[in-house]
Write a structure and sequence with these properties.
This protein has two domains: 49 residues, no CATH class; 45 residues, no CATH class. Helices cover 27% and strands 18% of the residues. It has three helices and five strands. Strands 3-4-5 form a three-stranded antiparallel sheet. A two-stranded antiparallel ribbon has the order 1-2. The chain is flat.
Length: 111
């Protein structure tokens, strides 16, 4: 427990968790990596069982290896693209296409 969590006046001290959004670990669900590790140790197996345990390896093919990615540039000048993790093929994207959760390789090929 760090001193940043100590609250209260003399004689009435208590510890309080941090404000999560301030630190942003685990997609803003945890205040620290230690907190994330503690949660996983307690609930990880149950979460995997709930969402589905993988019993066979997932086979990556050129058709299912596409992800959205970007190359960081100074002053917000980033280059966005669809990247095939298997073939290293790149298809340029606009920022709007990158931010659109429904924009996929299938839609990119239609344009």
């Amino acid at each position: 427990m760090t001193s940043s969590r100590k609250r209260g006046i003399k004689g009435d001290k208590y510890f309080q968790t941090r404000i999560v959004g301030q630190y942003g670990y685990g997609d803003n669900h945890f205040c620290t990596m230690s907190c994330q590790g503690d949660w996983w140790a307690k609930h990880g197996t149950r979460a995997i069982d709930h969402f589905g345990r993988i019993h066979e390896p997932i086979r990556m093919t050129p058709e299912n290896a596409w992800i959205k990615d970007y190359t960081w540039g100074r002053e917000g000048n980033h280059t966005h693209y669809l990247l095939n993790k298997l073939t290293d093929e790149r298809i340029p994207l606009t920022l709007a296409q990158y931010d659109d959760d429904n924009y996929t390789i299938e839609r990119a090929r239609q344009t």
